[in-house]
Design a protein that fits this description.
heterodimer, A: mainly beta, six-stranded mixed beta sheet, about 60% strand, globular, B: mainly beta
Chain lengths: ~120, ~110
Amino acid sequence: AQSVTQLGSHVSVSEGALVLLRCNYSSSVPPYLFWYVQYPNQGLQLLLKYTTGATLVKGINGFEAEFKKSETSFHLTKPSAHMSDAAEYFCAVSVPSGNTGKLIFGQGTTLQVKP
Amino acid sequence: ETGVTQSPTHLIKTRGQQVTLRCSSQSGHNTVSWYQQALGQGPQFIFQYYREEENGRGNFPPRFSGLQFPNYSSELNVNALELDDSALYLCASSLISGPQETQYFGPGTRLLVL
């Protein structure tokens, strides 16, 4: 069965510091992996996704993630945190469901950015 | 802005009542999925509709049901509400079939069951 584990429910960084949010997945089929961000009282916004091809994926707002099959990981990084990055981040794996796919989400990581 | 809208934004119901939540997808998106997000948790897949037919279902009881209409709108119906149904309900639409396709989420409906 497919699953997603996000290591660390809360991550706190200083403004300008490196952001690293960890995600490990379990999948019996080639995975399609997503990172979404959720700001308070809002829905989910896609940051980036990996389907096939290049394992380093660049997304919006300066975020990127690297798919590492040997480590079953898809960690999210950003070189320099901004105050506006404070939000909830969700890693998800998409699994086939009928004709399409359904998303299996991790528990989420709250990113706090300190001035 | 994802182009996916949901109504109402907030709703308060009492245990045992029924509720209908609505979603309007982007034009041309033939797939809509519904997710339940309890406080402090990741979203959980409820079910999915593809071309107006149920296309997959998560671990939710039959009192959770849905409809998808030809005009890219959809509904989530929950009967016999329980306290644990209190959550943020998200709908997401995608353009074409396939697990690699991006799902675009609406802002959600926050349901409180008293």
